Amino acid sequence: MRIDILTVLPELLFSPLNYSIVKRARDKGLVEINIFNLHDFAKDKYKSVDDYAFGGGAGMVMMIEPVYRAIEKLKSERKYDEIIYTSPDGERFTQKLANELSLRENLIILAGHYKGIDHRIRENLITREISIGDYVLSGGEIPAAVITDAIVRLIPGAMSDEQSALSDSFQDDLLAPPVYTRPADFMGWKVPDVLLSGNAAEIDKWRHEQSVERTRKLRPGLMNE
Ligand code: SAM
Hints:
By secondary structure, the protein is an alpha/beta fold. The protein is built from 8 helices and 9 strands. Residues 86-89, 111-113, 115-116, 131-133, 135-140, 143 line the site of S-adenosylmethionine.
């Protein structure tokens, strides 16, 4: 799988995509992640990527040309399954969407900045718009990192068996059960006996019951979606 991220601030992406499961998946060659600096696609000597908004008002707008040139260059080299723009008004990012995107070969994720991108890019080049929640961040870099992380950990081989994504919340419309580690008794705070029993069937049953109970209590809507 290949994920190409377009941004005006590459520095914001280096750390989130260079540690833990995402780094290991990159090292194993399971995913190739490239970060492109949109300033490198600017036409003028100042490497401008933003300009004033037509009609006035506060805030700058990301210009068409650098984004267009970057996307066209990438598209001339390979076919992309989706060209994603991160946007607060996009479709809500969910585990279901992460599962779907993890099955794709090539993705572009365009991170917006300033007041957003010139709308003509959205109308003519973007195939999917994704929001990570109903709040506004300063840029699309953190959303791009969130989307990439959620996708990459689902690629077969990215996680070891014991970290399996299948046991995570939302995979089966249920929240994950509680987890514990040593010591089994910390100042009287005890781990449920069943987890120390060594009885795998009973442990599975307990975990499922906990998942159902926690989902009913904390996110009842998930069970009806
Ligand atoms: N003026 C825009 C609006 O009200 O919808 C917000 C622009 S925001 C300051 C700059 C960029 O951050 C956006 O273009 C988008 O790429 C990204 N962004 C901010 N919040 C986001 C969210 N919740 N989900 C995805 N991307 C977001």
